[in-house]
Amino acid sequence: MPERAPRTYGGDLLSIGFQIAIVVGIPLLAAAFIGDALDRQLGTTPTLGLVAILLGLVIAGLGTFFVLRRYLAANPDQPASDRAREAGRSWEREIQEREQKREAGEEDE
After folding, report:
1. Integer Cα distance of 41 and 49 in angstroms
2. d(Cα 87, Cα 91) in Å, to the nearest integer?
3. Cα torsion for 42, 48, 52, 54, to the nearest 10°?
4. For residue 27, what are the contacts with CB-CB under 8 A and spacing of at least 6?
5. pTM of this prediction?
6. Is residue 20 exposed (0-12), middle (13-18) or buried (19+ Cβ within 10 Å)?
7. Running DSSP on this structure, what letter comes out for residue 105?
8. Given CB 3.0 to 4.6 Å as the disulfide criterion, which of 11, 24, 45, 97 pairs with 60?
9. How far apart are CA 48 and CA 33, in angstroms?
10. pLDDT tens, 85-101?
């Protein structure tokens, strides 16, 4: 069996975007159509339509929560690498040196 290519960050985000679009879109569209059909049949316009859409929003929110929870469980935050920390320290030193020069009147122009 051939090995799968490693997943990329952008590919993961694209996948999550599609999943969330489906998880939000389908319940809302279904709720709108079902609510409208019930309103027409029972003559309760717009009461059942609004209730159905609110229910669709709740279902969409729960679906989004579960999609994001699954993604975050598979991709935990990684601590900053030593290389990133050193780059941050170097940047801080450079800023401090520029501030000291400015205070001493030796500013480069």
Report:
1. 12
2. 6
3. 180
4. 56, 57, 59, 60, 63
5. 0.62
6. middle
7. T
8. 24
9. 11
10. 888 899 999 999 999 99
